[in-house]
Amino acid sequence: MMNKTSSTLDTILSHRSIRKFTPKKISTDILEQLINAARCASTSNNLQCISIIRITDETLREQIMACASNQQYIKDAAEFFVFCVDFHKHQQICPESQLDYTEVLLIGAVDAGIMAQNVLVAAESLGLGGVYIGALRNEIEKVSELLKLPAHSFPVFGLCLGYPAQDPPLKPRLPKTLMCFENTYQALQEPILAEYNQQVQEYYQQRSKIDMDWTRNIEKTLAKPVRPHILPFLQKQGFIKK
Length: 242
Description:
CATH class of the largest domain: Alpha Beta
Radius of gyration: 20 Å
Strand order of the largest sheet: 1-2-4-3
Protein name: Oxygen-insensitive NADPH nitroreductase
CATH topology of the largest domain: NADH Oxidase
GO molecular function, one term: oxidoreductase activity
CATH architecture of the largest domain: 3-Layer(aba) Sandwich
Low-confidence stretches: none
Structural class: alpha+beta
Number of domains: 2
Domain Nitroreductase: 12-163
Organism: Conservatibacter flavescens
Order of helices and strands: HHEHHEHHEHEHHH
Keywords: Flavoprotein, FMN, NADP, Oxidoreductase
Shape: globular
CATH superfamily of the largest domain: NADH Oxidase
Strand content: 5-15%
Number of strands: 4
C-alpha cells in the first residue's frame, strides 16, 4: 500500500516563488501564526539572534524597493518582512560579548535562513505565496539606515507575502546525483549537468521567454565581483573582524 505524503511535505515540494499578488490583505490571525512560526524556528545555542521588521509604511516600502532593483512586488505584496541578524540585544545583555568573530556572523546568517523558511512554509500552507528579496543587500547600508538598525545588526533579506495572482511552473532543481552524496564528495557529472541545463532552459523559455540555463546563470552571477561593499559594511557594524 502506497503511503500518501503529508500536507506539510506537499507544501514544501510544490514551492514556487510568487511575484504577483492579489489586493487581498492578510488577516491579523494569520500574521500572528506566521510570527509564531518564526519564533519556533531552530536557533543555534538558543541565541535567538534574528529580528523581523514588518514594513507597513508605504513610503518606506518604496524606499527599500528603490534599494532592491525596483522590484515592484515589494510594493504590491500584502506584507513585506525584513529579516535582520541582531546581536545588538546580546551586546546590551552581555557587554563583553565577542561579536567580531566570523562564526558569529555565520550563526546569524544560518538562523535567519531557518527562521525565514519556517515563515514561508507556514504561509504557503495557509494559501499564501511569497518570494525572498536578497537584492536589498545591493544597498545594504542605506536599507540599514532606513530601518534605523544599530551596531551589531544588519538586514539579510526581505520576504514578500500575499495571495498569489499567478501560477508559475515549478523551477527544476538539481538532480539528487549532483547534490546528495554518500560518505564523500562526488565529482561533477557532465552528462547529468547537460540534461539539467536543458530542463532549466526550457523552464525559462516557458516562464520568461529568455534564453538561460543553469550554467549560464552561474556565470552571470559569480563571474564578477559579488557585492564587494558587503565586507566593509559588516566590519563597520562590528562583524567578521576575526
